[in-house]
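ok trying again, last paste got cut off:
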Amino acid sequence: MAYRWRLPAIAMLLAANVACSSGRYSASAFRLPPDGDAERGKADFVALGCHSCHEVSGMDLPRPTVQPPVPVVLGGVVDAKLSDAYLVTSIIYPSYQLAPYPKDQITSHGQSRMPAYTDRMTLRQLTDIVAFLQSRYFVARRDIAPPLTMVFRAY
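nice, full thing came through this time. structure:
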């Protein structure tokens, strides 16, 4: 009888963990339609001139031309998958959360140097560009538990 509370408590903890987890399909993030096309997104990325400021890790795109250069490289290895919400917000409201780079390189008068794309693209283009960018991020593998030698040394 003393164990009756454990299953509901464990279920609640697991549900809370899933609901609060980060990542592209996090319950705390909105989702774009699943039909985003990374190839169309790559073409839109170039057509909209995103490549004139940003490099994309592992992609052979025209080199950025903006001066002074923007140090924000998109894609690459990350600790956790970025949510669609984060990428969409970064595109349509880039000043909301500035990238962790020196402010003098990415801002002008306290705002992001990147223009807001709210009125510059269609929802289809936005969905495809997010699919393209998502395809360029890779989550770093982490070991969940420390080696046993580390656990035993603590005692």
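cool. The chain has one domain: 6-139. DSSP finds six helices and six strands in the chain.
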